Amino acid sequence: MYRFLFLLSDAAHGLLLARRLRGGRRGYKARMRETAAMAGALFGNTMHRYYGLSQGLLARGFTDEIILPPYTAHPVPRRYTIQAYAGIALLLLAEAYFITNT
């Protein structure tokens, strides 16, 4: 699933680049039609690449199961908690400063 997101992102980037290079800014209806066509092409292109990826995994012996090591939660040290809250407070103060001085 994680790899599928990268395939989708790469396909969408390629389609958007192709649209920009073709100069796809004619009118509202044409833009909507082109967007619908791009969505269909994106789905088809992504599913085609995903099928190739899944076939490659099956050829290498993937059995649809990823075994993860056991997870044990560790408490967050107090120092890191204090640093996180101090960073958030600093960011909020900086934003408040920039909002009042603009």
Written description of the protein model:
75% of the residues lie in helices and 0% in strands. The chain is mostly helical and 102 residues long. The two termini are 44 Å apart. The mean pLDDT is 83.
Structural class comes to mainly alpha
* Largest sheet data: none
In N-to-C order, the SSE pattern is HHH
Helical content (DSSP H or I, runs of 4+): over 70%
Write the layout of secondary structure elements.
Blueprint: H1 2-22, H2 28-59, H3 78-100
Helix pairs in contact: 1-2
Could you write a compact summary of the structure shown?
Helices cover 75% and strands 0% of the residues.
Keywords:
single chain; 102 residues; mainly alpha; 3 helices; 0% strand; flat
